[in-house]
Amino acid sequence: MRIVDNMEVESDVFKENGASCPSEAGLKIPERMIKREQDRLEDVERKKEAKKSQSVTEEKSGFFTAAFSSERAAIEELLVGCSGETDRTLATQTLEEVTTRTQQLQKFLNDSMVFLPQYVLSRAQASLQKLQNSLAEKRDEILPKKRFAFRSRATNTPKAGPPSADPVSVITSKDSAETAVDAAISPPEQCGFSHFESQVLTKSGEEIKQQDVLLTHLTNCKVRLLGSPSTVHIKHIQNCEIFSGPVSSSVFVDHCTGSTLSFPCQQLRTHHTTNTQVYLHVTSRAIIEDCKEVRFAPLTWTYPGLDEDFKVSGLDRKRNNWNQVDDFNWLAVGTQSPNWSVIPEAERRTEWD
Amino acid sequence: MGLLTILKKMKHKEREMRLLMLGLDNAGKTTILKKFNGEDVSTISPTLGFNIKTLEHKGFKLNIWDVGGQKSLRSYWRNYFESTDGLVWVVDSADRLRLEDCRQELSSLLLEERLGGATLLVFANKQDLPGSLSKDAIREALALDNIKTHHWCIIGCSAVTGENLLAGVDWLLDDIAARVFTAD
Protein backbone atom coordinates (compact mmCIF):
# COMPACT_ATOMS: atom_id res chain seq x y z
CA MET A 1 0.00 0.00 0.00
CA ARG A 2 2.70 2.42 1.00
CA ILE A 3 4.67 1.88 -2.14
CA VAL A 4 1.67 2.66 -4.20
CA ASP A 5 1.14 5.89 -2.27
CA ASN A 6 4.69 6.96 -2.86
CA MET A 7 4.41 6.32 -6.49
CA GLU A 8 1.38 8.50 -6.66
CA VAL A 9 3.18 11.29 -4.85
CA GLU A 10 6.12 11.06 -7.20
CA SER A 11 3.95 11.11 -10.20
CA ASP A 12 2.38 14.30 -8.84
CA VAL A 13 5.76 15.88 -8.50
CA PHE A 14 6.64 14.78 -11.94
CA LYS A 15 3.62 16.53 -13.26
CA GLU A 16 4.56 19.77 -11.47
CA ASN A 17 8.11 19.89 -12.82
CA GLY A 18 7.48 18.05 -16.00
CA ALA A 19 6.66 21.12 -18.03
CA SER A 20 10.20 22.61 -18.10
CA CYS A 21 12.34 19.59 -18.89
CA PRO A 22 10.59 16.33 -19.27
CA SER A 23 13.70 14.35 -20.40
CA GLU A 24 15.67 15.07 -17.18
CA ALA A 25 12.69 14.63 -14.94
CA GLY A 26 13.43 10.95 -14.29
CA LEU A 27 16.89 11.74 -12.83
CA LYS A 28 15.96 14.76 -10.82
CA ILE A 29 15.63 14.01 -7.10
CA PRO A 30 12.58 15.51 -5.54
CA GLU A 31 13.12 18.25 -2.94
CA ARG A 32 11.53 16.32 -0.19
CA MET A 33 13.95 13.48 -0.79
CA ILE A 34 16.89 15.85 -0.59
CA LYS A 35 15.57 17.26 2.64
CA ARG A 36 15.20 13.80 4.02
CA GLU A 37 18.78 12.95 3.10
CA GLN A 38 20.02 16.10 4.79
CA ASP A 39 18.11 15.29 7.94
CA ARG A 40 19.64 11.87 7.95
CA LEU A 41 23.15 13.23 7.59
CA GLU A 42 22.59 15.75 10.35
CA ASP A 43 21.26 13.04 12.57
CA VAL A 44 24.36 10.92 11.97
CA GLU A 45 26.54 13.90 12.77
CA ARG A 46 24.61 14.57 15.97
CA LYS A 47 24.95 10.98 17.10
CA LYS A 48 28.67 11.10 16.37
CA GLU A 49 29.00 14.23 18.50
CA ALA A 50 27.08 12.64 21.32
CA LYS A 51 29.24 9.56 21.23
CA LYS A 52 32.38 11.65 21.21
CA SER A 53 31.31 13.60 24.26
CA GLN A 54 30.57 10.37 26.11
CA SER A 55 33.87 8.63 25.46
CA VAL A 56 36.74 9.97 27.50
CA THR A 57 40.22 10.13 26.05
CA GLU A 58 41.52 8.19 29.04
CA GLU A 59 39.28 5.31 28.02
CA LYS A 60 41.00 4.67 24.73
CA SER A 61 43.19 1.63 24.76
CA GLY A 62 45.71 3.58 22.71
CA PHE A 63 46.04 6.17 25.44
CA PHE A 64 46.33 3.41 28.02
CA THR A 65 49.07 1.55 26.16
CA ALA A 66 51.12 4.70 25.69
CA ALA A 67 50.80 5.86 29.31
CA PHE A 68 51.40 2.38 30.67
CA SER A 69 54.50 1.63 28.67
CA SER A 70 56.09 5.02 29.26
CA GLU A 71 55.65 4.66 33.02
CA ARG A 72 56.92 1.11 32.89
CA ALA A 73 60.02 2.22 30.99
CA ALA A 74 60.64 4.95 33.57
CA ILE A 75 60.43 2.44 36.42
CA GLU A 76 62.75 0.00 34.65
CA GLU A 77 65.27 2.75 34.18
CA LEU A 78 65.16 3.58 37.88
CA LEU A 79 65.63 -0.08 38.70
CA VAL A 80 68.64 -0.45 36.42
CA GLY A 81 70.12 2.76 37.79
CA CYS A 82 70.06 1.59 41.37
CA SER A 83 72.14 -1.54 40.79
CA GLY A 84 75.28 0.58 40.49
CA GLU A 85 74.39 2.37 43.68
CA THR A 86 76.86 1.78 46.47
CA ASP A 87 75.18 3.92 49.09
CA ARG A 88 72.76 1.69 50.95
CA THR A 89 70.28 4.33 52.06
CA LEU A 90 70.11 5.84 48.59
CA ALA A 91 69.51 2.44 47.06
CA THR A 92 66.78 1.77 49.62
CA GLN A 93 65.12 5.06 48.73
CA THR A 94 65.19 4.23 45.04
CA LEU A 95 63.72 0.79 45.71
CA GLU A 96 60.97 2.38 47.79
CA GLU A 97 60.13 4.71 44.95
CA VAL A 98 60.12 1.87 42.45
CA THR A 99 57.80 -0.08 44.75
CA THR A 100 55.26 2.73 45.11
CA ARG A 101 55.34 3.55 41.42
CA THR A 102 54.82 -0.10 40.54
CA GLN A 103 51.86 -0.19 42.89
CA GLN A 104 50.44 2.93 41.27
CA LEU A 105 50.88 1.33 37.88
CA GLN A 106 49.01 -1.73 39.11
CA LYS A 107 46.21 0.53 40.30
CA PHE A 108 46.12 2.32 36.96
CA LEU A 109 45.78 -1.05 35.27
CA ASN A 110 43.04 -2.12 37.68
CA ASP A 111 41.15 1.10 37.06
CA SER A 112 41.41 0.65 33.32
CA MET A 113 40.32 -2.97 33.40
CA VAL A 114 36.71 -2.19 32.54
CA PHE A 115 37.35 -0.85 29.05
CA LEU A 116 40.51 -2.70 28.00
CA PRO A 117 40.42 -5.51 25.48
CA GLN A 118 41.41 -8.87 26.96
CA TYR A 119 44.63 -9.02 24.97
CA VAL A 120 45.93 -5.61 26.08
CA LEU A 121 44.97 -6.43 29.65
CA SER A 122 46.86 -9.70 29.77
CA ARG A 123 49.89 -8.16 28.06
CA ALA A 124 49.95 -5.33 30.60
CA GLN A 125 49.49 -7.75 33.49
CA ALA A 126 52.37 -9.89 32.25
CA SER A 127 54.76 -7.01 31.89
CA LEU A 128 53.79 -5.73 35.31
CA GLN A 129 54.49 -9.15 36.77
CA LYS A 130 57.90 -9.11 35.11
CA LEU A 131 58.58 -5.73 36.60
CA GLN A 132 57.63 -6.95 40.07
CA ASN A 133 59.88 -9.98 39.71
CA SER A 134 62.88 -7.93 38.72
CA LEU A 135 62.12 -5.55 41.58
CA ALA A 136 62.12 -8.50 44.01
CA GLU A 137 65.39 -9.76 42.55
CA LYS A 138 66.96 -6.36 42.83
CA ARG A 139 65.82 -6.03 46.41
CA ASP A 140 67.33 -9.39 47.34
CA GLU A 141 70.55 -8.34 45.65
CA ILE A 142 70.88 -4.95 47.30
CA LEU A 143 69.19 -5.53 50.63
CA PRO A 144 69.55 -9.20 51.62
CA LYS A 145 66.88 -10.23 54.09
CA LYS A 146 67.96 -10.25 57.69
CA ARG A 147 67.12 -13.39 59.55
CA PHE A 148 64.78 -12.98 62.44
CA ALA A 149 66.12 -13.55 65.93
CA PHE A 150 64.74 -12.83 69.35
CA ARG A 151 66.65 -9.95 70.82
CA SER A 152 67.84 -11.21 74.13
CA ARG A 153 67.39 -8.69 76.87
CA ALA A 154 70.81 -9.48 78.31
CA THR A 155 72.64 -8.28 75.20
CA ASN A 156 70.75 -5.01 75.15
CA THR A 157 71.63 -3.72 78.60
CA PRO A 158 75.42 -3.97 78.71
CA LYS A 159 75.83 -2.29 75.35
CA ALA A 160 78.08 0.69 75.98
CA GLY A 161 78.19 3.86 73.92
CA PRO A 162 75.93 4.87 71.06
CA PRO A 163 74.64 2.09 68.81
CA SER A 164 77.01 1.41 65.97
CA ALA A 165 75.92 2.66 62.59
CA ASP A 166 77.72 -0.13 60.79
CA PRO A 167 75.04 -2.58 59.65
CA VAL A 168 77.44 -5.52 59.75
CA SER A 169 78.00 -5.30 63.47
CA VAL A 170 74.25 -5.11 64.09
CA ILE A 171 73.70 -8.30 62.16
CA THR A 172 76.37 -10.21 64.08
CA SER A 173 74.95 -9.16 67.42
CA LYS A 174 71.59 -10.49 66.25
CA ASP A 175 73.20 -13.77 65.25
CA SER A 176 74.68 -14.28 68.66
CA ALA A 177 71.29 -13.55 70.19
CA GLU A 178 69.83 -16.37 68.18
CA THR A 179 71.70 -18.98 70.19
CA ALA A 180 70.05 -17.59 73.31
CA VAL A 181 66.57 -18.15 71.89
CA ASP A 182 65.63 -20.77 74.45
CA ALA A 183 66.47 -18.45 77.30
CA ALA A 184 64.53 -15.56 75.86
CA ILE A 185 61.61 -17.71 74.89
CA SER A 186 60.42 -18.39 78.44
CA PRO A 187 59.90 -15.02 80.04
CA PRO A 188 59.40 -14.88 83.81
CA GLU A 189 55.66 -14.25 83.48
CA GLN A 190 55.13 -17.60 81.71
CA CYS A 191 53.45 -20.20 83.90
CA GLY A 192 55.09 -23.64 83.67
CA PHE A 193 58.23 -25.76 84.10
CA SER A 194 61.31 -25.97 81.84
CA HIS A 195 64.61 -27.86 82.03
CA PHE A 196 64.07 -30.19 84.98
CA GLU A 197 65.24 -33.73 85.60
CA SER A 198 63.93 -36.32 88.07
CA GLN A 199 61.72 -33.99 90.08
CA VAL A 200 58.16 -33.78 91.33
CA LEU A 201 56.71 -30.51 90.01
CA THR A 202 53.34 -29.24 91.21
CA LYS A 203 51.31 -26.12 90.51
CA SER A 204 48.32 -25.20 92.65
CA GLY A 205 44.98 -23.97 91.41
CA GLU A 206 45.88 -20.49 92.62
CA GLU A 207 48.96 -20.40 90.38
CA ILE A 208 47.22 -21.84 87.31
CA LYS A 209 43.91 -19.96 87.28
CA GLN A 210 43.09 -20.02 83.55
CA GLN A 211 46.69 -19.26 82.53
CA ASP A 212 48.46 -20.77 79.53
CA VAL A 213 50.94 -23.33 80.83
CA LEU A 214 54.22 -24.28 79.13
CA LEU A 215 56.10 -27.50 79.96
CA THR A 216 59.39 -28.04 78.08
CA HIS A 217 62.58 -30.09 78.31
CA LEU A 218 61.56 -32.35 81.19
CA THR A 219 63.07 -35.77 81.86
CA ASN A 220 61.92 -38.34 84.45
CA CYS A 221 59.62 -35.81 86.11
CA LYS A 222 56.19 -36.06 87.74
CA VAL A 223 54.14 -32.99 86.89
CA ARG A 224 50.81 -32.24 88.57
CA LEU A 225 48.76 -29.21 87.52
CA LEU A 226 45.99 -29.04 90.15
CA GLY A 227 43.83 -26.37 88.52
CA SER A 228 42.22 -25.34 85.27
CA PRO A 229 44.65 -23.90 82.68
CA SER A 230 43.26 -22.17 79.58
CA THR A 231 45.73 -24.02 77.35
CA VAL A 232 48.82 -26.24 77.76
CA HIS A 233 51.92 -26.65 75.56
CA ILE A 234 54.00 -29.78 76.22
CA LYS A 235 57.29 -30.10 74.29
CA HIS A 236 60.50 -32.18 74.48
CA ILE A 237 59.41 -34.58 77.21
CA GLN A 238 61.02 -37.89 78.14
CA ASN A 239 59.76 -40.52 80.58
CA CYS A 240 57.48 -38.16 82.46
CA GLU A 241 54.07 -38.33 84.09
CA ILE A 242 52.07 -35.22 83.31
CA PHE A 243 48.60 -34.90 84.86
CA SER A 244 46.50 -31.77 84.63
CA GLY A 245 43.09 -30.47 85.66
CA PRO A 246 40.53 -29.53 82.98
CA VAL A 247 42.02 -27.46 80.12
CA SER A 248 39.48 -25.01 78.64
CA SER A 249 40.80 -25.12 75.07
CA SER A 250 43.57 -27.13 73.45
CA VAL A 251 46.53 -29.17 74.66
CA PHE A 252 49.47 -29.16 72.24
CA VAL A 253 51.97 -32.03 72.60
CA ASP A 254 55.19 -32.19 70.55
CA HIS A 255 58.24 -34.49 70.80
CA CYS A 256 57.19 -36.60 73.73
CA THR A 257 58.46 -40.15 74.39
CA GLY A 258 57.89 -42.88 76.96
CA SER A 259 55.47 -40.83 79.02
CA THR A 260 52.03 -40.95 80.58
CA LEU A 261 49.68 -38.00 80.12
CA SER A 262 46.30 -37.46 81.72
CA PHE A 263 43.90 -34.51 81.49
CA PRO A 264 40.46 -33.35 80.40
CA CYS A 265 40.56 -30.85 77.52
CA GLN A 266 38.60 -29.50 74.57
CA GLN A 267 41.11 -30.54 71.87
CA LEU A 268 44.29 -32.60 71.95
CA ARG A 269 46.91 -32.14 69.22
CA THR A 270 49.77 -34.64 69.40
CA HIS A 271 52.89 -34.43 67.22
CA HIS A 272 56.15 -36.45 66.96
CA THR A 273 55.23 -38.56 69.94
CA THR A 274 56.12 -42.20 70.53
CA ASN A 275 55.40 -44.87 73.11
CA THR A 276 53.09 -42.70 75.21
CA GLN A 277 49.91 -43.43 77.19
CA VAL A 278 47.16 -40.84 77.23
CA TYR A 279 44.29 -41.05 79.77
CA LEU A 280 41.95 -38.59 78.20
CA HIS A 281 38.69 -36.73 78.46
CA VAL A 282 38.26 -34.73 75.25
CA THR A 283 35.05 -32.93 74.35
CA SER A 284 35.76 -32.39 70.66
CA ARG A 285 38.56 -34.41 69.10
CA ALA A 286 42.09 -35.73 69.64
CA ILE A 287 44.48 -35.86 66.69
CA ILE A 288 47.92 -37.33 66.13
CA GLU A 289 50.49 -36.48 63.46
CA ASP A 290 53.89 -38.13 62.91
CA CYS A 291 53.28 -40.34 65.96
CA LYS A 292 53.87 -44.01 66.75
CA GLU A 293 52.67 -46.30 69.52
CA VAL A 294 50.40 -43.79 71.16
CA ARG A 295 47.74 -45.48 73.28
CA PHE A 296 44.54 -44.00 74.63
CA ALA A 297 42.20 -44.74 77.54
CA PRO A 298 39.46 -42.74 79.29
CA LEU A 299 40.44 -40.40 82.11
CA THR A 300 40.34 -41.87 85.61
CA TRP A 301 42.83 -39.72 87.53
CA THR A 302 41.18 -37.40 89.99
CA TYR A 303 42.13 -34.91 92.72
CA PRO A 304 40.24 -32.89 95.31
CA GLY A 305 38.74 -29.91 93.51
CA LEU A 306 38.40 -31.60 90.10
CA ASP A 307 34.63 -31.01 90.03
CA GLU A 308 35.08 -27.33 90.78
CA ASP A 309 37.79 -27.01 88.10
CA PHE A 310 35.58 -28.73 85.55
CA LYS A 311 33.03 -25.96 86.12
CA VAL A 312 35.70 -23.26 85.73
CA SER A 313 36.94 -24.79 82.47
CA GLY A 314 33.47 -24.87 80.95
CA LEU A 315 34.06 -28.39 79.57
CA ASP A 316 31.14 -30.75 79.10
CA ARG A 317 31.66 -33.61 81.53
CA LYS A 318 29.24 -35.89 79.74
CA ARG A 319 30.91 -35.71 76.35
CA ASN A 320 34.13 -37.72 76.07
CA ASN A 321 35.46 -38.67 72.62
CA TRP A 322 38.68 -40.22 73.94
CA ASN A 323 38.61 -43.10 71.44
CA GLN A 324 37.88 -41.03 68.33
CA VAL A 325 41.38 -40.11 67.25
CA ASP A 326 42.17 -38.56 63.86
CA ASP A 327 45.55 -39.56 62.48
CA PHE A 328 46.67 -36.99 59.91
CA ASN A 329 49.07 -39.52 58.43
CA TRP A 330 46.35 -42.14 58.03
CA LEU A 331 43.48 -40.77 56.03
CA ALA A 332 42.04 -44.15 54.97
CA VAL A 333 38.44 -44.31 56.14
CA GLY A 334 37.30 -47.50 57.81
CA THR A 335 40.71 -49.00 58.60
CA GLN A 336 42.34 -48.45 61.96
CA SER A 337 45.55 -46.40 61.93
CA PRO A 338 48.61 -48.43 62.98
CA ASN A 339 49.97 -45.43 64.88
CA TRP A 340 47.55 -45.48 67.82
CA SER A 341 45.46 -47.96 69.76
CA VAL A 342 43.19 -48.30 72.77
CA ILE A 343 44.79 -49.57 75.98
CA PRO A 344 43.13 -52.91 76.84
CA GLU A 345 41.09 -52.61 80.05
CA ALA A 346 43.26 -55.10 81.91
CA GLU A 347 46.35 -52.99 81.24
CA ARG A 348 44.86 -49.67 82.25
CA ARG A 349 46.36 -47.92 85.20
CA THR A 350 44.17 -47.69 88.28
CA GLU A 351 46.67 -46.52 90.91
CA TRP A 352 47.58 -42.87 90.62
CA ASP A 353 49.90 -42.42 93.65
CA MET B 1 29.46 1.01 26.01
CA GLY B 2 29.70 -2.52 24.72
CA LEU B 3 28.02 -5.60 26.01
CA LEU B 4 31.28 -6.78 27.55
CA THR B 5 31.60 -3.57 29.49
CA ILE B 6 28.10 -3.93 30.84
CA LEU B 7 28.77 -7.50 31.87
CA LYS B 8 31.96 -6.51 33.63
CA LYS B 9 30.22 -3.71 35.47
CA MET B 10 27.52 -6.11 36.58
CA LYS B 11 30.12 -8.47 37.94
CA HIS B 12 31.62 -5.66 39.97
CA LYS B 13 28.22 -4.82 41.41
CA GLU B 14 28.03 -8.26 42.99
CA ARG B 15 31.12 -7.38 45.03
CA GLU B 16 32.29 -10.86 45.78
CA MET B 17 35.54 -11.48 47.59
CA ARG B 18 37.52 -14.60 48.19
CA LEU B 19 39.45 -14.78 51.45
CA LEU B 20 41.90 -17.54 52.28
CA MET B 21 42.65 -18.25 55.92
CA LEU B 22 45.93 -20.03 56.67
CA GLY B 23 48.34 -20.51 59.56
CA LEU B 24 49.99 -23.24 61.62
CA ASP B 25 47.77 -25.82 63.28
CA ASN B 26 46.23 -24.75 66.61
CA ALA B 27 46.38 -21.07 65.59
CA GLY B 28 42.59 -20.68 65.85
CA LYS B 29 41.55 -20.35 62.20
CA THR B 30 38.31 -22.30 62.48
CA THR B 31 37.47 -20.60 65.77
CA ILE B 32 37.88 -17.19 64.12
CA LEU B 33 35.66 -18.24 61.23
CA LYS B 34 32.93 -19.64 63.48
CA LYS B 35 33.06 -16.76 65.94
CA PHE B 36 32.82 -14.26 63.10
CA ASN B 37 29.79 -16.11 61.85
CA GLY B 38 28.23 -16.21 65.32
CA GLU B 39 28.46 -19.96 65.79
CA ASP B 40 29.32 -22.05 68.85
CA VAL B 41 33.10 -22.38 69.23
CA SER B 42 33.23 -24.95 72.03
CA THR B 43 32.76 -27.99 69.79
CA ILE B 44 35.44 -27.26 67.20
CA SER B 45 37.70 -30.16 66.23
CA PRO B 46 41.12 -29.88 64.60
CA THR B 47 40.42 -29.32 60.89
CA LEU B 48 40.99 -32.39 58.77
CA GLY B 49 40.61 -30.82 55.35
CA PHE B 50 38.92 -27.44 55.03
CA ASN B 51 35.81 -25.38 55.81
CA ILE B 52 34.12 -22.86 53.52
CA LYS B 53 31.73 -20.17 54.68
CA THR B 54 29.91 -17.66 52.54
CA LEU B 55 28.69 -14.66 54.43
CA GLU B 56 27.51 -11.12 53.83
CA HIS B 57 29.35 -8.27 55.47
CA LYS B 58 29.20 -4.56 54.70
CA GLY B 59 27.50 -5.23 51.40
CA PHE B 60 30.16 -7.68 50.29
CA LYS B 61 29.71 -11.35 49.72
CA LEU B 62 32.66 -13.08 51.37
CA ASN B 63 33.78 -16.56 50.47
CA ILE B 64 36.05 -17.57 53.33
CA TRP B 65 38.21 -20.66 52.98
CA ASP B 66 39.66 -22.10 56.16
CA VAL B 67 42.23 -24.78 55.39
CA GLY B 68 43.72 -27.08 58.05
CA GLY B 69 47.20 -26.12 59.23
CA GLN B 70 48.70 -29.50 60.16
CA LYS B 71 52.10 -30.12 58.64
CA SER B 72 50.71 -32.95 56.53
CA LEU B 73 48.07 -30.61 55.05
CA ARG B 74 50.31 -27.64 54.24
CA SER B 75 51.34 -29.05 50.89
CA TYR B 76 47.67 -28.83 49.87
CA TRP B 77 47.44 -25.11 50.62
CA ARG B 78 48.54 -24.36 47.06
CA ASN B 79 45.27 -25.81 45.76
CA TYR B 80 43.41 -22.89 47.27
CA PHE B 81 45.57 -19.98 46.05
CA GLU B 82 43.75 -19.23 42.78
CA SER B 83 41.94 -15.86 42.62
CA THR B 84 42.41 -15.06 46.29
CA ASP B 85 41.66 -11.41 47.11
CA GLY B 86 42.75 -11.51 50.73
CA LEU B 87 45.05 -13.75 52.74
CA VAL B 88 44.37 -14.02 56.48
CA TRP B 89 47.40 -15.38 58.33
CA VAL B 90 46.49 -16.52 61.81
CA VAL B 91 49.16 -16.74 64.53
CA ASP B 92 48.92 -18.35 67.95
CA SER B 93 50.50 -15.52 69.94
CA ALA B 94 51.11 -17.83 72.90
CA ASP B 95 53.03 -20.42 70.87
CA ARG B 96 56.53 -18.99 71.27
CA LEU B 97 58.20 -22.25 70.36
CA ARG B 98 56.96 -22.29 66.78
CA LEU B 99 57.30 -18.64 65.79
CA GLU B 100 60.25 -19.41 63.54
CA ASP B 101 58.17 -22.10 61.79
CA CYS B 102 55.40 -19.58 61.46
CA ARG B 103 57.71 -16.97 59.92
CA GLN B 104 59.08 -19.43 57.38
CA GLU B 105 55.67 -20.68 56.27
CA LEU B 106 54.40 -17.13 55.82
CA SER B 107 57.42 -15.92 53.88
CA SER B 108 57.24 -18.85 51.48
CA LEU B 109 53.54 -18.13 50.93
CA LEU B 110 54.32 -14.54 50.02
CA LEU B 111 56.60 -15.72 47.22
CA GLU B 112 53.68 -17.51 45.58
CA GLU B 113 52.84 -15.89 42.29
CA ARG B 114 49.16 -16.73 42.55
CA LEU B 115 48.91 -14.85 45.83
CA GLY B 116 50.72 -11.88 44.31
CA GLY B 117 47.68 -9.62 44.22
CA ALA B 118 46.29 -10.52 47.63
CA THR B 119 46.11 -8.24 50.65
CA LEU B 120 47.62 -9.74 53.80
CA LEU B 121 45.93 -9.52 57.20
CA VAL B 122 47.86 -11.03 60.12
CA PHE B 123 45.75 -11.93 63.13
CA ALA B 124 47.87 -12.14 66.31
CA ASN B 125 45.30 -14.43 67.91
CA LYS B 126 44.83 -15.58 71.52
CA GLN B 127 45.50 -12.16 73.03
CA ASP B 128 43.21 -13.24 75.87
CA LEU B 129 45.95 -15.57 77.19
CA PRO B 130 48.16 -13.99 79.86
CA GLY B 131 51.31 -15.51 78.32
CA SER B 132 50.64 -14.28 74.79
CA LEU B 133 53.08 -12.05 72.91
CA SER B 134 51.94 -8.58 71.89
CA LYS B 135 51.16 -7.84 68.27
CA ASP B 136 54.36 -5.79 68.05
CA ALA B 137 56.43 -8.76 69.21
CA ILE B 138 54.71 -10.92 66.59
CA ARG B 139 55.31 -8.28 63.96
CA GLU B 140 59.01 -8.40 64.74
CA ALA B 141 59.14 -12.19 65.01
CA LEU B 142 57.55 -12.61 61.59
CA ALA B 143 59.69 -9.81 60.09
CA LEU B 144 56.55 -8.19 58.69
CA ASP B 145 58.32 -4.89 58.08
CA ASN B 146 60.35 -6.57 55.35
CA ILE B 147 57.22 -7.27 53.32
CA LYS B 148 57.13 -4.90 50.34
CA THR B 149 55.21 -7.05 47.89
CA HIS B 150 51.81 -6.99 49.59
CA HIS B 151 49.62 -4.56 51.47
CA TRP B 152 49.64 -5.86 55.03
CA CYS B 153 48.36 -5.13 58.51
CA ILE B 154 48.68 -6.91 61.86
CA ILE B 155 45.88 -6.90 64.39
CA GLY B 156 45.84 -8.43 67.86
CA CYS B 157 42.65 -10.36 68.46
CA SER B 158 40.97 -13.09 70.42
CA ALA B 159 38.77 -15.59 68.65
CA VAL B 160 37.37 -16.77 71.98
CA THR B 161 36.15 -13.35 73.08
CA GLY B 162 35.66 -12.04 69.54
CA GLU B 163 37.79 -8.98 70.28
CA ASN B 164 39.04 -7.11 67.19
CA LEU B 165 37.84 -9.71 64.68
CA LEU B 166 35.55 -7.15 63.05
CA ALA B 167 38.25 -4.49 63.01
CA GLY B 168 40.57 -6.87 61.15
CA VAL B 169 38.05 -7.98 58.58
CA ASP B 170 36.89 -4.40 58.02
CA TRP B 171 40.45 -3.29 57.27
CA LEU B 172 40.87 -6.19 54.88
CA LEU B 173 37.65 -5.42 53.02
CA ASP B 174 38.49 -1.73 52.72
CA ASP B 175 41.91 -2.49 51.32
CA ILE B 176 40.64 -5.03 48.81
CA ALA B 177 37.74 -2.82 47.78
CA ALA B 178 40.12 0.06 47.15
CA ARG B 179 42.15 -2.12 44.81
CA VAL B 180 39.51 -4.15 43.05
CA PHE B 181 36.35 -2.08 42.94
CA THR B 182 37.78 1.36 42.24
CA ALA B 183 36.18 1.31 38.79
CA ASP B 184 32.71 1.91 40.25
From TrEMBL, chain A:
InterPro entries linked: C-CAP_CF_C-like (IPR017901), CAP/MinC_C (IPR016098), CARP_motif (IPR006599), TBCC (IPR027684), TBCC_N (IPR031925), TBCC_N_sf (IPR038397), Tubulin-bd_cofactor_C_dom (IPR012945)
Q: Is Cytoplasm a UniProt keyword of this protein?
A: yes
The biological processes this protein is annotated with in GO are: post-chaperonin tubulin folding pathway; tubulin complex assembly
Q: Which GO terms describe its molecular function?
A: tubulin binding
Question: What Gene3D superfamilies does the entry give?
Answer: 2.160.20.70, Tubulin Binding Cofactor C, N-terminal domain
In which domain of life is the source organism classified?
A: Eukaryota
Location in the cell: Cytoplasm
Subunit field text:
Supercomplex made of cofactors A to E. Cofactors A and D function by capturing and stabilizing tubulin in a quasi-native conformation. Cofactor E binds to the cofactor D-tubulin complex; interaction with cofactor C then causes the release of tubulin polypeptides that are committed to the native state.
What does the function comment of this entry state? Tubulin-folding protein; involved in the final step of the tubulin folding pathway.
Tell me what this protein is called: Tubulin-specific chaperone C
User: What organism is the protein native to?
Assistant: Esox lucius
Give the organism's phylogenetic lineage: Eukaryota, Metazoa, Chordata, Craniata, Vertebrata
Q: Per UniProt, what is the name of the gene that codes for the protein in this document?
A: TBCC
UniProtKB/TrEMBL annotation, chain B:
Xref: SUPFAM superfamilies? P-loop containing nucleoside triphosphate hydrolases
Q: Which UniProt keywords apply?
A: GTP-binding, Lipoprotein, Magnesium, Metal-binding, Myristate, Nucleotide-binding
Q: Does the keyword Magnesium apply?
A: yes
Q: Which GO terms describe its cellular component?
A: centrosome
Query: Which residues take part in binding Mg(2+)?
Result: 30, 47
Recorded GO MF terms: GTP binding; GTPase activity; metal ion binding
Where does the chain bind GTP? 23-30, 69, 125-128
Localisation per UniProt entry: Cytoplasm, Cytoskeleton, Microtubule organizing center, Centrosome
Q: Which InterPro entries match?
A: Arl2, ARL2/3, P-loop_NTPase, Small_GTP-bd, Small_GTPase_ARF/SAR
What the record says about family reads: Belongs to the small GTPase superfamily. Arf family.
PANTHER family named in the record: ADP-RIBOSYLATION FACTOR-LIKE PROTEIN 2-RELATED
What is this protein's record name? Answer: ADP-ribosylation factor-like protein 2
Q: Tell me which species this is from.
A: Esox lucius (Northern pike)
